[in-house]
Amino acid sequence: MAAAFMEVLPILKALRRNKVGAMLIGLQIALTLAIVCNCLSIIQQYRDQMGSPSGLDEANIFTVSNTWVGHADDPKVRIAADLAALRSMPGVADAEESNGLPLGGSGWGTGINLKPDQQHPSASTTEYFVDEHALAVYGIKLTAGRWFSADEIRDFHLGEDLSATSIVMTRRLARALFPSGDALGQVIYLSAPTPLRVVGIVERAQSPWAGISHDASAVENSVFLPERYLNNYVTYVVRAHPGALATAMGAVRDRLYAVTRQRIILSVSPFREMRQRTYQTEQSLSVLLGVLCALLLIVTACGIVGLVLYWVSQRRRQIGMRRALGARRMDILRYFQLENLLIAGTGAVLGIAVGLAGNTWLAATLVLTRMSAGYICVGALIVLALSQAAVLWPALRAAAIPPAAAIRDL
Amino acid sequence: MMLSYYLELAIRSLRRNVALTALMVTVVGFGIGASMTVLTTLRAMAVDPIPDKSAQLFVPQIDAWGPPTRPGGGADGSGQLFDQLTYRDATGLMQARKAARQTAMYAVSLDTVSLEGVPLPVDGRAAYADFFQMFEVPFRYGGPWSAADDKGRANVVVLSARLAARLFPHVNPVGRTISLSGQEYRIVGVMDAWNPVPRFYDLTQGPNSGLADADSLFVPFSTAIEREMPDNGSIRCNARVAPGFAGQLASECLWIQFWAQLPTQAAARDYKTFLYNYAAEQRRLGRFHWKPWVELRDVHQWMALEISVPETLRVSSVVAFGFLAVCLINAAGLMLARFSGRAGELGVRRALGASRWDIGWQCVVETAVVGLPAGAVGLALTFAGLASQRALHMVAGSAAAVARVTSLGDGMIAITLVLAVCATVCSALYPIWRASRLQPAWQLKAQ
Question: Which of A108, A220, A336, B350 has the fewest CB atoms lying closer than 10 Å?
Fold first, then answer.
């Protein structure tokens, strides 16, 4: 202990003559650490977000968005004909039509009330209009109760009131509304005063805004209503048999054109693509931040190498003198490593403070979660190790200075 | 004279230590590249899309729903006003005609048939004839429809250059008819290329609407209402709506955008008074049950309110400027080493009669000489950064708009170089000050 102190004391004394240089290195380390640990935390948060499951059988689902041209009749007949055609396609397990899809980006939101005349809703949720096939199409897991039967499905035109009397919701929403866990069989109200009985609970179904919104309740709160969404613009959700996705997607246009030519098929796209598109910016920002962090570490390391090399050249005579007085190469090497550890350690302590403050600010101004202490520790270790590695080469050069340098420059 | 001498000294000293010089150039270059990449995009998204008129075009806002539902507010009535109007208020303002020019508008979606005979969906906009003069829309053929067409709900249409080129290649289609959703319309004008970024005339369609493409065609507002063209934009309702299009028109739903052209400040003041009186009148009629609240915002204020910089861009701008700071601190350390290492030489110059200022200036020139190539490196990295921003889809929006906000605009090259030189000199201020304070006698003795 005393020996270590004896070693540190002269380093501190020498540093007083190089105050500004040491401060610049410390400051650099502090900022680098603050930025790197915040970036790591952001990247991890994006990874978590990108990895969260939608609840659907994503690998086998694709969507077809379609609008008809020049029909004046009720779209109900046309939708039924299309669905029949889709369901009878080879390679297709089942198909249905919906007003929105998890990760789809656009959909319908509403408030949920527990009493018919409530002022402020108890929760907000996405409403999906589905038929009796939807459970099989989505591949969602039903954890309690039942799914809708065919005779429960009502017709819904834009601007009309809901006429459904039953509802299925996600487990997360059920827990939020009924914390004691008895959601099944309870009655709730959406915007209309008609009571809706909870007949089923599903494990998970994300909202269309998962990926856009960072609010957990906005992401996981979904309800399903037995309503046939009748509109001239529709989206079909089709589930293929495993391995048959590409074939089914290739044949779907011709199949629908065979029903009628008077339509515009706006897109046929696999669910996987939707996920990719939804998280595109998160994905690319992760890459960008990773690259910036790597560059930052390189720049900091270069700066340390440059400045310490200069210090070594400045102290050639003192080093030579120490060597002449009996110091081993190891002692010189240790001197510079220890000096760097002192500077970088002080910088790291400052960096932890700046990093935490920065994280608080980021969390307040942007929708980011707080960083865990683990990131700061990992970041501090990375930066300290890097700084020690950076100082190794200049320190080795210092250790190589011969004792004769003490007199040669005189 | 003195400057060229300093330049010569600087280049000579920089060449003596190529590794250190290269390190400084690279370090500052990286910092400049990272920050300029972000700055370019941020600047392009906030650029004034209509400089000569941005202080004359205004969006009126009317509190049609009252305190409890204001966005961002609580039950106490705090918060903001919504960005769209009800059909009733929009037509009320149109009929009053209190502005020099004014237009209500909403987005529509129609379909036509392509040259190959395939149905083709087109995004359009229902607006009044004033729209084209207000927003300085350039025309290739023909022109806007007339006020009489507005009044008479005429079946007329103005096409974008792109749609016209697709449907009527190589001809002037003015006077021809086009079938839109089963109805014939007479083409009265074809616009020249017009795609303002940000698309400031309608920023109400969500966070990315500023980078959406301009509409493909325009039809008179009155015609669109008569034909019951459904709204293709965002619509917000606070109560159940009676079925059908008539129900939507009579409702308190917010879905119409409105712009007024008010040439002078006095006109803007008068218009705001008019808006207040309009809201007060609605209260007297029993429609509003709260204190009138109206706002009038010009293009700059409207963009500040409506355009939200994407979160990805905000995160990367914080990181990029932090990166620049680290690079500059780094450069400061390297400069300190460089000037201290040359203390002997500078001491000799001092002893030979150079003043402190002379030494200071010599050092400033030397750092500026480092800053210039650093700016060039930064510029190259900015190009690379912007290209990767495009390739990685960092900014969501239409291809043309994204290309516009991720390219170096006028003057950005000069700004980059100036920033690089200034940043380098600033980072070296302390080392320069120290170098100029050297005691010549000590340095000579040390020799």
Answer: A108
Report the candidate in B388, B399, B423 with the shortest Cα–Cα distance to residue B40. B388
Is the model more confident about B400 or about B90? B90
| Dihedral pair phi/psi, residue A303, rounded to 5° | -60, -40
Nearest to B329 among A27, A35, A311 (CB): A27
Q: At what angle do helices A316-324 and A280-314 cross, to 10 degrees?
A: 60
In this prediction, residue B93 carries a pLDDT of: 95
Sign of CA dihedral A344, A350, A352, A357: negative
% of chain A beyond a pLDDT of 90: 44
Specify the pLDDT at position A410. Answer: 47
Cα of B393 to nearest chain A Cα, Å: 6
Structure tokens at B393: 């889809």
Candidates A31, A42, A157; nearest CB to B322: A31
SS3 B142: strand
Q: What is the pLDDT of residues B94-127, one digit of tens each?
A: 999 999 999 999 999 898 888 888 888 899 999 9
Look at residues B333, B332, B320, B431 and name the one whose alpha carbon lies nearest to residue B382. Answer: B320
Q: CA of B327 to nearest chain A CA: how many angstroms apart? A: 7
Identity of the residue in A38, A161, A299 whose CB atom sits nearest the CB atom of B27? A299
Taking residues B42-66, what's their average pLDDT? 85
Q: What is the C-alpha radius of gyration for chain A, rounded to an integer number of angstroms? A: 33
A243, with CB counted inside 10 A (0-12, 13-18, 19+), is: exposed
Say whether B316 and A289 touch across the interface (CB within 8 A): yes
Closest CA to A54 of A21, A92, A89, A100: A100
Complex ipTM tops 0.85: no
Q: How far is B67 from chain A (nearest CA, A)?
A: 14
Hunting for tokens 């969390």 — which residue is that? Answer: A363
Domain boundaries, chain B: 2-46+309-446, 57-306
- Nearest partner of B100 among B301, B280, B266, judged by Cα: B266
Cβ of B315 within 8 Å of Cβ of A42? The answer is: yes
pLDDT, one tens digit per residue, over A204-243 is 999 887 776 666 666 888 999 999 999 888 999 999 999 9
Cis peptide before B198 (omega within 30 of 0): yes
Question: Which pair of tokens denotes residue B186?
Answer: 């007479």
By Cβ distance, the residue of B243, B338, B430 closest to A159 is: B243
B336/A24 Cβ within 8 A: yes
Q: How far is CA B346 from the centre of its chain?
A: 49
For chain A, domain boundaries = 2-52+280-408, 70-261
Does this model's pTM top 0.80? My answer is: no
A176-203 residue pLDDT tens: 999 998 899 999 998 667 899 999 999 9
Q: Which class for A312: exposed (0-12), middle (13-18), buried (19 or more C-beta within 10 A)?
A: buried
CA nearest to B313 within chain A: A285
DSSP string, B34-54: HHHHHHHHHHHHTS-SSTTTT
Q: Which two tokens stand for residue B31?
A: 């910092």
